[in-house]
């Protein structure tokens, strides 16, 4: 099989603005990030996904772009970006960047030209209506913040479409000129060395809601056009789509292997949290079975948390309620209708063995694992910050003021650092944890190393293994070799038996503790409460 790098990448996402400030203005920047590359290569990261770093009025954390061809001056210059790319490449780290082209910022020159002049060539870059049609409330991405997807613009004398904030007018993807611009943007960043794009809000791109002339097939075809373009410019570049859609719609994004290479695994993520809440393995089994088979080159990107809310919208109302009760009991921990605005460690009450269980599980599920900055050290959230900012606090590097993120006065920081309590930077930070052999960061490093050694998890075919304990999720991924992985979701120790072929034995690779080597005659495998074990399956 062709070597497909993304199938066994260790992806790490970060926002330049909150990672490391090099010039003391309180805002993270590319020079700061470049200095931190050794940390990332040290823990074994092989691919970075950068959140939007383009010039932006920042109504939506940079997801409102006003210039696709530049770096936000607060974060550095294009020169700093190129130097960063060079240094990342030197360390064997690839870079994927966010491509936010479902919408622009209202301040983008295209929108400014479009609203001023009906006859401007940019008018048709956006979606206008003099009489906006009725829309389904579920189309509101930020309920309670926006009450419509149409906004009247006095200058234009018409309403424009916006699925997200009203400061983010949707682009008209059925317009060939817009598609050409999008390809040009991708071409630009590919020339600067990026290995692909995270396609923001992909479903809105291809659904054509509000576009009168929209032809569904034509819009979906744009995903193939993007793919063709990207592959022609750089054969190993990948497209990773953000598409939280029901299982039956997934094929629209993967196609026959001729559209997106990767999709975030929103479904499995939600099933995982339900399984953790219920401590029942069958939920995860159902989750895996619900996923469609993927064309050979396609891949899931698995994650625990990312920069947005933990969405639960693929679960039923009662299932959502169970997850809320278990992991976000207070109203203030929730956001929008189906979301949780927390990081993992506080959701697990800071219990180390449960935190390990979740990452061990996510890293071993079929697909490619994604970590988000701060997960390697167990950062918490700040619920006093509004909305999704609770999980977007600056990276905690040391116990120096501001967690070593910046030399600026604390009140000048782009966002406050967590400075108190169990998750304060005085306790949770890179430098302190690096000195402690039992810290989360050192455990995470071992997890990453093990995942790299078990490439079957990224490329193999998977199979659910039946056990005699409903709380134990067991699966196997196999290509040339086979990896068997067991996770005990329950708060009590147990032993399970697996039905293996007579000539096969299991060799421990990784686990929550050092277990006695298995006695293959008894066939019984002990697991601690919340325990996990990874094995090679060998021929006897
Ligand atoms: C994506 C981003 C989110 C942003 C939205 C609008 O969902 O992840 O942060 O608000 O798109 O661009």
From TrEMBL:
Q: Where is the Glycosyl hydrolase family 13 catalytic domain?
A: 13-421
Kindly indicate where the leader peptide sits in this chain: none
For this protein, the record's PANTHER family field holds: ALPHA-AMYLASE FAMILY MEMBER, MALTOSE ALPHA-D-GLUCOSYLTRANSFERASE
Name the record gives this protein? Trehalose synthase
Task: Give the originating organism.
Answer: Gloeocapsopsis crepidinum LEGE 06123
């Amino acid at each position: 099989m062709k070597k497909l790098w993304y199938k066994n990448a260790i992806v790490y996402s970060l926002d330049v603005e909150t990672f490391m400030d090099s010039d003391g203005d309180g805002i993270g920047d590319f020079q700061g990030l470049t200095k931190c590359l050794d940390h990332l290569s040290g823990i074994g990261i092989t691919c970075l996904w950068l959140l939007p770093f383009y010039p932006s009025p920042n109504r939506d954390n940079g997801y409102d772009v006003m210039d696709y061809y530049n770096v936000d001056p607060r974060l550095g210059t294009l020169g700093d970006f190129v130097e960063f790319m060079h240094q990342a490449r030197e360390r064997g780290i690839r870079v994927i960047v966010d491509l936010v082209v479902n919408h622009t910022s209202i301040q983008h020159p295209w929108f400014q030209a479009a609203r001023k002049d009906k006859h401007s060539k940019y008018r048709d870059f956006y979606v206008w209506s003099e009489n906006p049609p009725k829309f389904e409330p579920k189309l509101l991405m930020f309920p309670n913040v926006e009450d419509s997807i149409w906004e009247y613009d006095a200058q234009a004398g018409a309403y424009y479409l916006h699925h997200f904030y009203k400061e983010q007018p949707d682009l008209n993807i059925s317009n060939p000129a817009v598609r050409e611009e999008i390809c040009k943007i991708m071409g630009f960043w590919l020339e600067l060395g990026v290995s692909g794009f995270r396609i923001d809000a992909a479903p809105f791109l291809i659904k054509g809601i509000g576009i009168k002339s929209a032809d569904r097939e034509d819009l979906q075809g744009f995903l193939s056009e993007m793919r063709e373009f990207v592959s022609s410019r750089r054969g190993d570049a990948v497209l990773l789509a953000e598409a939280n859609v029901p299982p039956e719609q997934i094929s629209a994004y993967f196609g026959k292997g001729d559209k997106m290479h990767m999709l975030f695994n929103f479904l499995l993520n939600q099933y995982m949290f339900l399984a953790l809440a219920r401590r029942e393995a069958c939920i995860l089994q159902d989750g895996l079975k619900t996923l469609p088979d993927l064309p050979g080159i396609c891949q899931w990107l698995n994650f625990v948390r990312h920069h947005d809310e933990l969405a639960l919208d693929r679960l039923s109302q009662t299932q959502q309620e169970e997850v809320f009760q278990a992991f976000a009991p207070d109203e203030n921990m929730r956001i929008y209708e189906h979301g949780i605005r927390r990081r993992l460690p506080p959701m697990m009450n800071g219990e180390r063995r449960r935190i390990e269980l979740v990452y061990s599980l996510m890293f071993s599920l079929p697909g490619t694992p994604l970590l988000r900055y701060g997960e390697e050290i167990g950062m918490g959230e700040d619920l006093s910050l509004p909305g999704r900012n609770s999980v977007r606090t600056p990276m905690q590097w040391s116990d120096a003021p501001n967690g070593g993120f910046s030399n600026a006065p604390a009140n000048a920081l782009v966002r406050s650092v967590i400075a108190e309590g169990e998750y304060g930077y005085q306790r949770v930070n890179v430098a302190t944890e690096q000195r402690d052999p039992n810290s989360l960061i050192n455990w995470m490093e071992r997890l990453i190393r093990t995942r790299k050694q078990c490439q079957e998890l990224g490329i193999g075919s998977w199979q659910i293994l039946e056990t005699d304990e409903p709380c134990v999720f067991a699966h196997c991924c196999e290509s040339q070799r086979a990896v068997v992985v067991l996770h005990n979701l329950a708060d009590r120790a147990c032993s399970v038996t697996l039905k293996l072929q007579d000539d096969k034995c299991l060799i421990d690779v990784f686990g929550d503790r050092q277990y006695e080597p298995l006695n293959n005659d008894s066939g019984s495998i002990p697991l601690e409460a919340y325990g996990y074990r990874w094995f090679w399956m060998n021929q006897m």
